[in-house]
Amino acid sequence: MKGTMRAAVFEAVKKISIKEVPIPQINDDQVLIKVEYTGICGTDWSIYTGKYSAENLPMIAGHEFSGTVAEAGANVIGLKVGDRVTADINIGCGHCYYCKKGETLLCPEFKQLGIHMDGTFAEYVAASWKLCHHIPENMSLLQGAFIEPTSCVIHSLKAMNFPVGSSVAILGSGLGSLHAAAAKTRGAAPVMVIGRNRDRLRIAEEMGADITICLEDYPDPVARVKELTGGRGADCVVEAVGNPKTYEQAMEMLRPGGVLAAFGICGPDDILPLKMADFVLSEKKISSSCAGYGEDWTDSITLLSNGRIKPEPLFSKIMPLERLEEALIMLQENRDLIKIFISPIAGTKEQDL
Ligand SMILES: [Zn+2]
Ligand SMILES: [Zn+2]
């Protein structure tokens, strides 16, 4: 497709311009997708503030998206103009040791759409047809834009690999609520979510948490989790904050033999102090996960389209592309907001969800 499109270009640290740029030109193996919604993620804030991917600026960020196929390359199979889609954002080189093993996320050439290359805070985006996923009829395009974060949580859930009836404590009440919903699909009980904001904890309960622990009531969440688990600690703990202090608490509230899912991203120099003798003798395990890819996307669609994960309580607002920068700042200042969706469709008005 020829012509220009409106895009939010992250020009430099804390500088976004809404401007006309050329519509991406697709090759024979790509589709052009007309973007409908893009959810704002913590990663977008990190790019905006220069904490992450600064070397790739100027760039159009945005990676949690849904849209419709606007144009399909000559080699594309199974996708036609008008189809509702999203695309796996994880791109490996395809021929290294990791890619051959199906471990795309570990590829030395690994890139993510909207994080290391132009993404979806724009009217159009190009994507390889092989990475596209149809959004089922019974899913809304807002849910479609939530397939990516759900795939990340599912990836972390699979890495923990816990049996039915395991207790799971989750530190963090943003995406932590999504971890709670996912843990329930695997038969976890009880699922405990720890956070500070009471509104967020109410949402965690709506999403499936059996018990919420408000830090105002329980300044020592380690003691509280132990109290709720016969003094042992939880079978699994998810750190979904990204803070060395909460990582320490996570290790302490984990029972011997349990698994810590490392999900929250800390600063590059942050360290988790481990007493090695205690770590060895306790047989605690740490499973880290950095994104969802491949089958995690299929599984995310399955759980969302069958209503096993109902994400709507996390949806806060829709805002027009022109107000992206304002929306990014709002998310930092107002902790009641969790997920804001940006739409580039002309005439989009701010709407509470
Ligand atoms: Zn994201
Ligand atoms: Zn590779």
What does this structure look like?
The chain has 353 residues and is of the alpha/beta class. It folds into 2 domains: 185 residues, Alpha-Beta Complex (Quinone Oxidoreductase, Chain A, domain 1); 136 residues, NAD(P)-binding Rossmann-like Domain (Rossmann fold), CATH 3.40.50.720. The protein is 26% helix and 28% strand. The protein is built from 11 helices and 19 strands. Strands 3, 5, 6, 9, 10, 17, 18 and 19 form an 8-stranded mixed β-sheet that branches. The chain has a 6-stranded parallel β-sheet with strand order 13-12-11-14-15-16, with helices on both faces. Strand 17, helix 11 and strand 18 form a beta-alpha-beta unit. The radius of gyration is 20 Å and the shape is globular. The chain starts with a strand and ends with a strand. The structure holds zinc ion (2 copies). The site of one zinc ion (ZN) has 6 residues, from helix 4.
